[in-house]
Design goal:
The protein is an alpha+beta fold. The chain contains twelve helices and 20 strands.
Length: about 375
Amino acid sequence: MKQLNKTDVAVVGGGIMGLAFALEAIRRQKKVTVFERNPSARGASVRNFGMIYPLGMRPGKIFERALRTRNLWLELGQSAKFWFNPCGSLLVARSKEEIVVLEEFVSSRQDIKGLRLLTLKEALKKSPGLVQDGLLGALWSESEICVDPQDAIQKISLWLENCGVNFKNSTTVTVVESGQLIANGEQWYAEQIIICSGSDLQTLFPNEFRNSGLVNCQLQMFRTNAQPCSWLLGPMLASGLSLLHYPAFTALKSYQTLKDRLTKEHPKLLELGIHVLVSQHSHGRITVGDSHEYGDTPAIFYQKEIEGLIRNYLSSFLTLPDAQVSERWLGNYVSHPSGEPWIYKPTDGVMLVNGIGGVGMTTGFGLAQEILPEC
């Protein structure tokens, strides 16, 4: 008689959210199987900066979720033995309006450990590549961690496998029903099925995706050559435009004045959803981005115009020893207009988790801790 394929928890999607749920389930002594349609994760989880960035999260529940996620990244870095750097971050200010927003933010966020507004000299000491001309100061936060997403995802997967998680890579799930699924033509039975497939959700659950309000977002990013002479960026960097992008800052009284100024100065950048972040991994290369194009009909090809706009804005606050681009790519994620993750149960024992909105690396592990007890 053919042996039945059975598991307590089936996770569809081997990216960061899928791994987060696999981690929580295995810690609860569950038998876990992860189904990934590719040989390894190839979506948003490996096409990002590798920034764990609690600083940008909305105060309250989401910020606390990010801090729990941060702590788990530190634990996993030791256990799974991937490269990580608790380097913190600088948010660079080059206008009076940006400084005012940062001053208000520091005074209102006593809950953030190690938060401080630095002078020009202090900022240059932490990140010598900053452009001194026009620099007024920078917001320093010690909470942020940098990882190499491809390396981290691969090694967390291997570590989870050693902990007992069953990975079914190159395995496409085509049917999901209460208590069972079909993967590569084989039937599997599971007490709980969690779908963490990102934008692929529209293939597996097209009606649910269509009615959810979820929105696709396409990004442009690039990476430079390894910097010469072991040059180090220092903390990860964000810029004035990031103050408009991240929800941590939108409720501040000084926010609208800054938005008005940046809208006048950089209308094209805001139209394309550009704000510039910078990170550096162990290989020495610099990752830079990004733009945000929302909707179902994004540009098919990488656009040099967008790269030029990003590079131009980057040069206003950072000088790299070697700015030659070695890699370019299009990223993508799915977000929800509410700003919250979209969680939906279409039938008993099946849960769809989506709409993380580009902060899966920052909040994913904490979110899985919250949701799994409800399964």
